[in-house]
Amino acid sequence: MFVQDDQCYAAVQSRDSRFDGWFVTAVHTTGIYCRPSCPATTPKRQNISFFPTAAAAQQRGFRACKRCRPDASPGSPEWNVRADVVARAMRLIADGVIDRDGVGGLARRLGYSERHLNRLLTDELGAGPLAVARAQRAQTARTLIETTSMPMTDVAFAAGFASVRQFNDTVREVFATSPTQLRADRLRRDGRSPVVGGRSGAISLRLPVRGPFDADAVFGFLGTRAVPGVETWDGATYRRTLRLAGGPAIAELRADGQGAVACTLWLTETADLQSAVQRCRRLLDLDADPVAVDRQLGADPVLAPLVAARPGLRSPGAVDGAELLVRAILGQQVSVAGARTVAGRLAEMVGDRVALAVSEDPDHVAALPVLLFPSAAALADIDPDALPMPMARRRALLGACRAIADGDVVIDLGVDRDGLRTALQRLPGIGPWTAQYVSMRALGDPDVFMPTDLGVRHALERLGHDGSPAAATALAERWSPWRSYALHHLWQSLATPSPTPPSNPPTRSRPGRTRS
Predict the structure, then answer these.
(1) Is the dihedral angle over the CA atoms 283, 284, 286, 291 positive or is it negative?
(2) Of 34, 263, 280, 401, catalytic
(3) Which of these is catalytic: 20, 95, 287, 453?
(4) 453 is annotated as an active-site residue
(5) How far apart are CA 468 and CA 474, in angstroms?
(6) CATH for 79-147+149-190, options being 3.40.50.1970, 1.10.357.20, 3.40.50.720, 1.10.10.60
(7) In the chain, which residues fall in CATH 3.40.10.10?
(8) Most buried by CB count within 10 Å: which residue of 22, 132, 141, 387?
(9) What is the tens place of the pLDDT at every residue in 338-392?
(10) Separation between Cα atoms, residue 408 and residue 404, nearest integer Å
């Protein structure tokens, strides 16, 4: 799916910001690489090369442009769309797997040898997994250097570097300046000192977004489903706890009104920063390509008015695959409100409490979540009689949690989507709806459609179409590969005033499942 060179050059000539993050432009005469929308004079075609990743440009000796800051662009949407091993590897690297487990750990997660995995990434990306992880560390380091007052030693280890020397060498090589000079330059531009955050121990970041971005819809979707104790939503700011490798964390997210997302993080270990940021980005689907999605879905007569009403609609993801599966099971054939209530009770029963020094403001402390969502192992050991749900759903929940706790089912960014859906449907009480919902949100699959969903049926019937599963499945074929976004458009349409009903509305049949 990598854009061809002629298309890349056309994007650079027009300074098209939609392609920021898709590729970088390396200029041979200056030795720098830029994002496509860089405001500098466009180089001659023979003087530039295009690379799918910053790591590939860095491997060839190019440094990042100080003017357009290609390291601060949104991530490539290609890794969300694709399901092959290279895309799965890129998603795991972004989550910090190499920093935690090395290349060997990444290879084991994907089921390949280190040598073969290195060859696959180098052949396609021009850089191996270590180089990709190194570029990511450099990006994280620059963010911390410029936006916080953390000591450089802390920045080095928070960004994932093994030593301060490695940190200094990488920053100088990638950005052609020292870490202290980067911070001084930012201070001179802003006229004020960077701070760790406005509250105790906080790290405040600005998450770039590829526009258009329907922030109201994505935050509303998450807020409506916020699990008491684990998540909070006050109509403007969404907050939730995170279970990370170094310990619990809290994330605070809100639209900043300037086309980006303001993110504040409280971490047990600063080394978890990159993982926390990537989970927040996946949760809000910030690396999507909304222009491509809206162009295809907006050309369809059924969805055109819905797309026009909500340009840039996202398909919200999840911060933890096991948690999402539990929530999907709880949402089987019950209302959204009912599912979140039960999830809150489970969190109160067996969820660990978060003990982070967050703020001295009592009102702010009261607004923060205090519980981690229960782990699969903790839920698997619950007394079945303590679960407030029908017996069949108890068996499904406990069986799924035991399968995850024992490692029989793995739900992470490195698993094969089709293989996971098959594995889930082998578990008692897990049907196609639940497996598809988990694939869409936990794995970020952009092409999921759930024809038996009750919301889909109602939305299609309101639009004057047959809402039966067979008819909905046939209709959705033309929405591929963006059926997950079509699904969210249909769900969102239910929140708007009902259009004039058709003269002969379809007969409703037995409802399917709801959405959790």
Answers:
(1) positive
(2) 34
(3) 453
(4) yes
(5) 10
(6) 1.10.10.60
(7) 5-55
(8) 141
(9) 999 999 999 999 999 998 867 667 777 778 899 999 999 999 999 999 898 999 9
(10) 6
